[in-house]
Amino acid sequence: MTTLPTLAISMLSILVVAWWWNDTEDEIVQQKRAEQARIRQQWLSREAPPPLPAERCVLALREQLRQGTVRPTDVTEHAIRKACVAGAAYCCVTEQPFEEAMRRAAALQCRPAGPEGLLWGLPVTVKDSVHMAGYDSSCGTTARCGRPQEEDGDIVSAIYRLGGVVVAKSNVPQMMMLPESSNRIWGTAKNPWNPARTPGGSTGGEGVLLAVGVSALGIGTDIGGSLRIPAVWCGVCGFLPTPRRLSHRGAATISASGFCGNDVIVPSIGPMARTVEGLALGMEALSAVESSDRTHRRQPWCADKVTTWSTARKVRVGWAESCSFFETCPTARRAVRESVQRLRQAGHDVVELPPIPMERIVELYYGILSAEGGMRSYREALQGEKLAPAYRSLLRMASVPAALRPVLAALLPPRMALLLRCTGGKTAYEFFQWVEALQQLRQQLLAEWFGKADVLLTPGPALPALPHGMSKELTPSFCYTFMANVLQMPTAVIPTTVVHADECTYVSAHRDRYTTLAQESMAGAAGMPMGVQVSAAPHMDEMCIGMALQLQRLHPPFPAPPS
Fold first, then answer.
1. Do 425 and 450 lie in a common domain?
2. What is the per-residue pLDDT for 14?
């Protein structure tokens, strides 16, 4: 039996540990921010390099480098200065390997760009979770600071081998599971189109760096829209490959082991760029990875297939502009309709898809990813650090006892009731049943949709970039990006339009808090980027990129942010 003195000593110990850890966290945050500011000031105080011609397309910049019109050192120094300015303005940068970047750029000038130099001289940025030797992969947590990686991940190794220069790592949310990018160490990333709004997440910092022209190619990860949401919201392009198409070795996961216990809905590494040509170049480069991970089956990129589909005629395109679970905003619907019209005028066969069973897709997505119960992996990964306030509502939902869920769900509006019923811990048997249901739905929808169409055209996020802090309450609005992860469809996103002044409204058949928040989020959204998703059947990645290229050509070039 526990005595009163023993209990008192235990409570005192907990308070002491909590006090010590909070003090240590504060020191870590101060040290990281001071070091970042020192390096930034050091580089901004240098004499600026000669001006360079502005190029939105990565292929144009690559051609200038190969012809010697611009030098790798000048391109790299320009990227570094832009990263310093953007990092200070938008909190989008974490680690700053500037000295190493300049050394690599100088070494490139001593050897010509051969055929193997696919990325020769190009500035590249990577998500904070992608490992670089000598630098932290903090993932927005103090627990992972001061632990520099001993070696480069597969993706960074491939970038270097192909002549690319990594100039910065980009900001993410704590443990990378929210659609905005804010953490205690690096601050809250801001959208360059409107700093009062988020760039998205969890690859939000990367979207900002590409939008403002720091890098020619970005690397992110995606398990529910993590790179596609920031791409659309920042007005750039992003690509989710078929799961395991690219090696994930050397990219941090929630678990400190680097592995993921859930092997059903898995994160994928993918490229981001200002144009679809950049996505194609990124996939060609990253597919060349020679991985020490023997579970990864290398599949070379076939550029000829991309060309074939980018010029194909009479392609069957299935489309949907909204669903009954979470209706899209007026701009998202217009983006799809305009793309459908342009494809039809180009001679393609476009057919509207039957109603999407989004409720079931969302139910399976949340149900499987929450199966451990109580966000246990997240909390353990923090090693004593406090869970970010943005996760509190998710933690409350995940921690409701199973016996209470049906009772509470009966009192809630339908969408909130659905999420409450499906989240929470599950036994091994129950988890197997959920996985079986997902496999059945996946097989059914892929057969149904791709029996009628070669590619699908759907909305990206249902809403434009949200005001800071709102995404934690509106995660169901990302159901259109969840869909690609659940069905394992390679998916490209491209920006096609911006919110018009008369589109800052939202209408839904649902009467709940999600609708109220969606309506509030549309106020002041005029001018924010929106776009569409192009999806193909699993393993048809080249077809997906090819059709995204074709769709991009049918739209006017998308501008850079006004800032």
1. no
2. 46
Q: State the CATH number of the domain containing residue 99.
A: 3.90.1300.10
Whether residue 20 is contained in a domain is answered as: no
Do 342 and 289 have their domain in common?
no
Q: How far apart are CA 200 and CA 179, in angstroms?
A: 5
**What totals of helices (H) and strands (E) does the chain contain, helices first?**
19, 12
266-277 per-position pLDDT tens digit: 999 999 999 999
**Could you report the per-residue pLDDT of 181-207, keeping only the tens digit for each?**
999 999 999 999 999 999 999 999 999
61, 53 in Cβ contact below 8 A? no
Average pLDDT of every residue of the chain: 93
In this structure, the answer to whether residues 177 and 292 fall within a common structural domain is: yes
Residue 177 and residue 211 share a domain: yes
| 419 and 454 belong to one structural domain | no
| Distance, CA of 224 to CA of 480 (rounded, Å) | 9
Rounded Cα distance between 308 and 547, Å, is 9
Amino acid identity at 199: P
454 contacts 536 by C-beta, under 8 angstroms: yes
DSSP secondary structure string for all residues of 7-56: HHHHHHHHHHHHHHHHHHHHHHHHHHHHHHHHHHHHHHTSPPPPP----S
- Contacts (Cβ under 8 Å, ≥6 apart) of 195: 89, 90
* Closest C-alpha among 262, 438, 275 to residue 363: 438
> Measured between alpha carbons, how far is 365 from 367 in angstroms, rounded to an integer?
6
Domain boundary among 407, 439, 471: 439
Residue 465 CA from chain centroid, whole number: 14
67 in the same domain as 182 = yes
**Identity at 439, one-letter amino acid code:** Q
Would you say residue 561 lies in a domain? no
Residue 22 lies in a domain: no
Q: Say what the alpha-carbon torsion angle 192, 198, 204, 210 is, to the nearest 10 degrees.
A: -10
Say if strands 237-240 and 268-273 run parallel, antiparallel, or are unpaired.
antiparallel
Strand, coil or helix: 553:
helix
Instruction: Spell out a b/e string for 444-463, using b for 16 or more CB atoms within 10 Å of the CB, else e.
Output: ebeeebbeebbbbbbbbbbb
Total structural domains within the chain: 3
Residue range of the domain that includes 397: 360-439
3-state secondary structure of 468: coil
CA distance 20 to 293: 39
Q: What is the pTM of this model?
A: 0.95
User: Does residue 143 lie in a domain region?
Assistant: yes
pLDDT of 20 higher than 70:
no
Q: Is 462 in the same domain as 521?
A: yes
Write the CA distances from 61 to 41, 56, 67, 79, 210, integer angstroms. 27, 8, 10, 13, 14
| Among candidate residues 439, 463, 488, the one where a domain is terminated | 439
Length of the chain (residues) = 563
Evaluate the omega torsion of the peptide bond into residue 202 and state whether it is cis, within 30 degrees of 0. yes
Tell me: do 212 and 339 sit in the same domain: no
CA–CA gap between residue 232 and residue 230 (Å, rounded): 6
- CA separation for the pair 327, 510 (Å, rounded): 9
